[in-house]
Amino acid sequence: MKHIIILFFISISIINSQIPSVSKNLYTPVNIEIDSINNSIIFNRKNAIHRYGYYLEQLSTLENKFLQIADYNDLEDSIYKVDNIEKNRLYEFNYINQSSMKYNTYEGFPYSQAKSNTYLACGRELESYAAKRTVLLLVDSTVYYPLESEIKRLRDDLVSEGWGVRIVEVNRMKYDEARFINVLDLYYLGIRDFLYYNPNLNTEAVLLIGKTPKFYSGKFAPDNKPNHLGAWPANGLFGIKTAFAHTYRDKENSFESDWERNNYGYQDLVYGYNTFPYKVDLMVGSLDLSELPSFPESEIELLRRYLNKNHKYRTGQLPFRRRGLIDDKLADEHLREAPASSGWRNFNSMFGPDSISEGDYFSTLENESYMASYACGNGQTFDSLGDVGSSKDFATKQVNTIFTMLYGDYIGDWDSPDNFLRASLASEPSILTAAWVGHPHWFMHHMSIGYPIGYSTRLTQNNEIYIPLEHFQTDTTSKPYDPYKNGVHVGLLGDPTLTMYPLELENSVSNLKALKVNDYTVRLTWDISDMSIPHYYDVFRSNYEDGPFDKMTDVSITSGEFVDEYHHTGDVWYMVREKVLEFSPTASFWKHLRGKIVQTDVKSDVEDNTENSDIIISPNPTSDNVVIQFTNDNYYNFDVQIYDARGTLVKTYSQNVKNHLIWNLEDEKGLRINSGVYYLKVDNGSNTSVKKIVVVK
């Protein structure tokens, strides 16, 4: 799918000597209207400060270049319309507010150039984020059996949502026993081997549950604290499929951090990457609730609490208002960094500009519900944020939010004991994901169209196309851009498969049955609970009980019947999922409801026996004639039948030729056959052999 990014530039001069909330000013509040009748997207900048200075650019996704397609004369008004939008095509836009800001004194720079970025994912009737994909649950073996029923329930929830699920037990992290060697075992013997031996599962996400081994990488301090320089936890490296060489620090040591876990000597195995060396392919989330002394509960009980609220949220038992809360305690200190601007611009896309509030984090969330929240303050050695709260607050107060973003010194090093960021996941009743957001800024606008938060995490980790806030005149490395874009410290705590749109509605499918019509045809039937309104269904199929599922319907069906012709021998699982049209602040998109599953078995008259070396087929795959050679004298007199994948006889040969025959890809009527899989069945009277032929045109 081709993605388009259009950028609107705003040139505004702000001459104030002090800005009370730079973060709030560094985003453009914008309302979106999808005009389905006229196929348009209408943008309305709320409270537009300046009439002129807007530029429209389009990103070339192939060349990663910005091409100006309209100047400020075309964009004078606060309302702008993009016409001729296509159905089921994702459009990505970005409003940029380019400002010059003046400060009394700030690190010797009285002026700072600032740009806001308000990203938007837009479209009309976008298809659901549901395709053949698998999530790998890597579970600490010491917590698996006490939590076996909760983990299996998570598996069932994920499967009913269309995910394939595989569960693998892994060894617990032991810091006193070669912690860096253990992480290689998990990476190479766990994830990499799983991907290698299961290439057809389309693994897209990894959730690490328990105190599993962790990557540490880099010699840097993203929180800009000189006493915190060294290697930080970097679990995004688990998401890289490309092999990369580890770095033994044989020429460089790092002992600047006051905390031993960040330091390393030349003999320690630590990765030396400050930024991701290759593309991050997998959506990775970490769920480690060990070493949280602020909580009276045990690690097992905290994990059970998390898995219980995860299930409640997925099934609509945790209703939340779709709005965002921002608690910016760094507004007057981190002026140019403006970390809370990540909250403002992402919440604009997720909820709309009228659904963003400012307030104290803990006191507000104790009494009111917000689907997403952002808080930042001065970190105080891992377990607290100045003027925001501490890990103890997460243990003693109700915190009514699902997705939270927290930022401040130290806490981004989340593997620390009683860490404030990790502690949020152990709170009640609802926090399910947490991330250190602000350095760099994150890109979560796809959540507004039903994509999982792991997608936003991976997008931020691979940030090359998307532009960060460009208001860094200098930084710790004296480079004129955000030095932590693409940084290895970027990662997600919690479940990466979660979306803003839990499946709270009941699927109207009931009494789902699978009837074998013959050896290669299955007829699915189901009852529809309410026939007075239209329903739309998609059918999925898998050869595995735990998925992943292939989508079988190109066009959604509206009746309670589907016939599938499938060449396969063995058990097959079918899933029928109803879909409903969902509306977000930026788009309309289809959401699949929880699926209903039925199992049956399929068998064809033709079974593949490709190991037979007496028959040689070349070329294979083929787009032209096929030469079939026989190397065994037993095939002197033989009959040949060619079947398609459905088991239908396509072509017959009766030969009295010893060496070979040529199939010109025609059926019995002389018509050219279509692309697909075909089976060659050879019978010489005493035995039968079957070979597969792949035709590609």
Shape: globular
Biggest beta sheet summary: 10 strands, mixed
- Beta-strand percent range: 25-35%
- The chain-level structural class is mainly beta
Intertermini distance = 23 Å
Rg, Cα atoms, Å: 29 Å
Residue share in helices? 10-25%
Unreliable spans:
1-20, 50-56, 58-64, 66-70, 100-112, 247-251, 466-481
Set out the fold topology.
Blueprint: E1 5-14, H1 22-25, E2 30-35, E3 40-45, E4 56-60, E5 65-70, E6 79-82, E7 91-102, E8 111-126, E9 134-140, H2 141-144, H3 148-160, E10 164-170, H4 179-197, E11 203-209, E12 216-220, E13 230-233, E14 283-287, H5 299-314, E15 324-328, H6 341-351, E16 356-358, H7 361-367, E17 370-376, E18 384-385, E19 389-390, H8 391-396, E20 398-399, E21 401-407, H9 420-423, E22 428-429, E23 433-436, H10 453-461, E24 492-494, E25 509-518, E26 521-528, E27 537-542, E28 550-551, E29 561-565, E30 570-583, E31 587-592, E32 596-602, E33 615-618, E34 626-630, E35 638-644, E36 649-655, E37 660-663, E38 676-683, E39 688-695
Parallel strand pairs: 1-7, 8-31, 9-10, 9-11, 11-14, 14-24, 15-16, 15-17, 17-21, 20-22, 21-23
Antiparallel strand pairs: 1-4, 2-3, 3-6, 4-5, 7-8, 12-13, 18-19, 23-24, 25-26, 26-29, 27-28, 27-30, 30-31, 30-32, 33-34, 34-37, 35-36, 35-38, 38-39
Helix pairs in contact: 3-5
